[in-house]
TrEMBL record:
Any one Gene Ontology cellular component term annotated for this protein: cytosol
Catalytic activity field: D-glucose 6-phosphate + NADP(+) = 6-phospho-D-glucono-1,5-lactone + NADPH + H(+)
Residue stretches making up the Glucose-6-phosphate dehydrogenase C-terminal domain: 222-520
The protein, known as: Glucose-6-phosphate 1-dehydrogenase
Segments for region (Disordered): 1-26
InterPro entries hit by this protein: G6P_DH, G6P_DH_C, G6P_DH_NAD-bd, NAD(P)-bd_dom_sf
Protein's GO biological process: glucose metabolic process; pentose-phosphate shunt, oxidative branch
Enzyme class, UniProt record, top EC level: oxidoreductase
PANTHER family: GLUCOSE-6-PHOSPHATE 1-DEHYDROGENASE, GLUCOSE-6-PHOSPHATE 1-DEHYDROGENASE G6PD
Glucose-6-phosphate dehydrogenase NAD-binding domain mapped to chain residues: 45-220
């Protein structure tokens, strides 16, 4: 995969920058990937074509790839869904309001197949359409099937594809399957789904998506750690006191109450996004960023996560549910008042955990992770807090507001990195106060980040699986969260609550506070 900054200029107007990205040396681990990347001839087939994800993320990603000349003329798009629609109506929904250039590039190559996912006729018709496109557009028999449906449709679609022979690859053609989350509800159902998938597709044909891996700043965790020499020596138990990983959202569940009721924060965010970011931040250096090498290291890290025992599970994990809160001007409904949510719901909208990683690098270092909806700030970050100096030759009275050193990787928003340290306060006395050095993507690079889905769609079309999740990674992630989800399901005590726009339940402060530590809460 390409961990270098994008070479594709997204803005015409250059701004004055302090660090020119052009001056930056590129990593030589993956030289073949530094080149401009474009998709080969292929047809993208989206199941769930009339759905929300397709409209909000997938179609804009296709459009943006077309706009940036990442798609060849021999590209086609096929939507499949139950909703009756003509090719023209689907093309209009895919391209309506878009610029003429993309229309010219994609028009004529957009088709729609209406039908039930458990009806073999749907797949027969799809196979015919794909053959027609191969003949008319030169899509060369290459197919990328994107399952953007509710999880319940995964099995019938996979069986339908196999029934129509659409899972078959030849020496010169590919057939790939992109699967959205949730991938199972727990380890057992993830294994069952793997069974269904592997009956029809080889693992090398399967691209399980976690859109966090498509974010430049998540990939930058790799660049920071492995393209530099200065961080590696301090990236271990000798220097790091603890690590905090936060995925905080200000939004509530919105219109997704029905889905969220069956997911909760642990399945929705921790099992996938949080554990992926954690694995990238803590894993050993891979030999290369080639898909299998990278994923092998992530799996090893996930395997090393120690599960809490039944006895200490209550101390190691905290859940919460938001109640009505906010300000008089902006009063926010409680979770139980949201559309599609059971008024007596016990689903968690907040989850925090303390994890330990049993390996030489990290033994004894606690990792605190948390996520929540309706928190006061939108922030996703990885913060390494370093140990205090063993001896301070300065009287404590001179240490005004001196926090421990920290390196903070800001995934979003305000993307960048900051290093927090102590500095002498100007003046006659020797006082030390916290200061920080800041790297900001926005002020440093003239290139703009592509949307996560755009990057991942292109990778799947190219066949680069490094930013997709392998079957054993999914299983390891479920292994970590399953015992906690099960413990909560069996715990009949009232679910802890937190007011909307507050930093989660007080139990979460106790979780991290046991060793005198505290959460980094943005002001
Ligand atoms: C999705 C979750 O996977 O990620 C949502 O299902 C969540 O509940 C979203 O809001 C967050 O993604 P991002 O990119 O906005 O941080």
């Amino acid at each position: 995969m390409d961990v270098n900054h994008r070479t594709l200029p997204r803005r015409k107007v250059e701004r004055t920058v302090t660090t020119r990205s052009e001056d930056t040396q590129t990593m030589d681990h993956a030289p073949q990937l530094i080149q401009e990347r474009s998709a080969p001839p292929a047809t993208l087939v989206i199941f769930g074509a009339s759905g929300d994800l397709t409209r909000r993320k997938l179609l804009p990603a296709v459009e943006s790839l077309a706009r940036h000349n990442r798609l060849p003329d021999q590209f086609a798009l096929v939507g499949v869904a139950r909703t009756p629609m003509s090719d023209e109506q689907f093309a209009e929904s895919a391209l309506g309001g878009r610029s003429l250039a993309e229309k010219r590039q994609l028009n004529g190559g957009i088709r729609y197949v209406a039908g039930g996912y458990d009806d073999p006729e749907t797949f027969k018709r799809l196979a015919e359409v794909l053959d027609e496109l191969d003949a008319q557009r030169g899509t060369s028999g290459n197919r990328l099937f994107y399952l953007s449906t509710p999880a319940g449709a995964f099995e019938p679609v996979i069986c339908g594809l196999a029934g129509a022979g659409l899972n078959q690859e030849s020496e010169n053609t590919f057939s790939r399957l992109v699967i959205e989350k949730p991938y199972g509800r727990d380890l057992a159902t993830a294994r069952e789904l793997d069974g269904v998938v592997h009956q029809a597709f080889e693992e090398s044909q399967v691209f399980r998506i976690d859109h966090y891996l498509g974010k430049d700043t998540v990939q930058n965790v790799l660049a920071l750690r492995f393209a530099n020499s200065i961080f590696q020596p301090i990236w271990d138990r000798s220097w790091v006191d603890h690590v905090q990983i936060t995925v905080a959202e200000t939004l509530g569940v919105g219109t997704r109450g029905g889905f969220y009721e069956h997911a909760g924060a642990m399945r929705d965010i921790v099992q996938n996004h949080v554990l992926q970011v954690l694995a990238l931040a803590l894993m050993e250096p891979p030999v290369s960023f080639e898909g299998e090498n990278l994923r092998n290291e992530k799996v090893k890290l996930l395997q090393a996560i120690r599960l809490p025992t039944d006895r200490d599970i209550a101390d190691a994990a905290v859940r919460g549910q938001y109640t009505r809160g906010g300000t008089r001007e902006e009063l926010m409904a409680g979770y139980r008042e949201e559309v599609g949510v059971d008024p007596l719901s016990r689903t968690e909208t907040y989850a925090a955990m303390r994890l330990n990683v049993d390996n030489w690098r990290w033994a004894g270092v606690p990792f605190y992770v948390r996520t929540g909806k309706r928190l006061p700030a939108r922030v996703t970050e990885v913060a390494l807090q370093f140990q205090r100096p063993p001896h301070l030759p300065i009287p404590t009275s001179q240490l005004t507001e001196l926090d421990a050193d920290a390196l903070v990787l800001r995934i979003q928003p305000n993307e960048g990195i900051s290093l927090r340290f102590g500095a002498k306060v100007p003046g006659h006395s020797f006082r030390v106060r916290t200061a920080s050095m800041d790297f900001s993507y926005e002020n440093t690079f003239v290139e703009e980040s592509p949307e996560a889905y755009e990057r991942l769609l292109l990778d799947a079309l190219i066949g680069d699986a490094s930013l997709f999740i392998r079957s054993d990674e999914v299983q390891q992630s479920w292994r970590v969260v399953d015992p906690i989800i099960e413990h909560w399901a069996n715990d009949r005590s009232p679910i802890p609550t937190y007011e909307a726009a507050s930093w989660g339940p007080t139990d979460a402060d106790r979780l991290i506070g046991r060793n005198g530590r505290k959460w980094r809460n943005a002001a």
